[in-house]
Amino acid sequence: VAKTHGKNGFRFFSEAIDTRVRNDLELEAGLRQALQDDGGGLWMAYQPQLHAQTGQLVGVEALVRWRRTDGQQVSPGEFIPVAERSSLITELGDWVLTQVCRDLATLRNSSVELPKVSVNVSPHQLLHGCGLVERICDTLARFGESPQRFEFELTESALMDEDGSVVLDAFHAAGFSLSIDDFGTGYSSFGHIKRFYVGELKIDQSFVRGLPEDGENAAIVRAVIQMAHALSLKVVAEGVETPLQAEFLRHCGCDILQGYLLGRPMSPDQLVGYLRARCSVE
Ligand code: C2E
Ligand code: MG
Ligand code: MG
Ligand code: MG
């Protein structure tokens, strides 16, 4: 690309790379510092997952949040990829799980016992995660938490990779449930999925966005739910923002709904308020 735009084109091109590299290095340094300060500026948000038919809380997804020392909030969509490339992801993943356990204890003090917590695990955690499952079990044991309440969200690439699939078996053997995140955006097939102990698929929000008008996405969502059910898998729809989307998904037999319509990702404090408010209306 650079050559065809001549000397100047190349300069702009390399300046753009410079800026990106500098930005990444800055994020990496900030994140490393945050982890050294035992997660200074990092915290976990929890987003409710509701039973599509009854509206009951089936669990929450744990989502990491970061406010830098300059007060700027950085989205995980930005810093998770940086953490993955720099292998800080292992440390970050350990911090996330520990913080989830701490938050569960805090919630318990407010008499909130969550049925299930889903924690995201990115591809690099699986591949370079020697002893990942063992470490997870150790952390849970330290806090007296049982594996049965934990679910791990993996992406389709975990199913496609030899090493990844070994780790999947280890998760299952330890008693954890597994969910395939962003389903439909990768290259896995139902043939792959049925070979592993996966209990749940999360339909990516890009398919949910255009519902119900978008005929193609509507057809995809309907077909995914049918095939998943034929394999005894539960289906979660993510990114549900409107009542019409929820209605369509319910109609298709989707099991679990997650999205701004049902609840935004929130701090443990806010989650207590959210659950109390729901109890009083039910
Ligand atoms: P994800 O696991 O697919 O998470 C869903 C994302 O969609 C979250 O973005 C969530 O805040 C957002 N979302 C939820 N409901 C709605 C909605 O109704 N509309 C829209 N437009 N968005 C909605 P978030 O929190 O920015 O996280 C982005 C990604 O970062 C996650 O995607 C996940 O892949 C990664 N991530 C987040 N936390 C962690 C973590 O603790 N560990 C790892 N390894 N990855 C994480
Ligand atoms: Mg997820
Ligand atoms: Mg997702
Ligand atoms: Mg996603």
TrEMBL record:
EAL domain ranges (all copies): 24-279
Protein name: Diguanylate cyclase/phosphodiesterase
Organism: Rhodoferax lithotrophicus
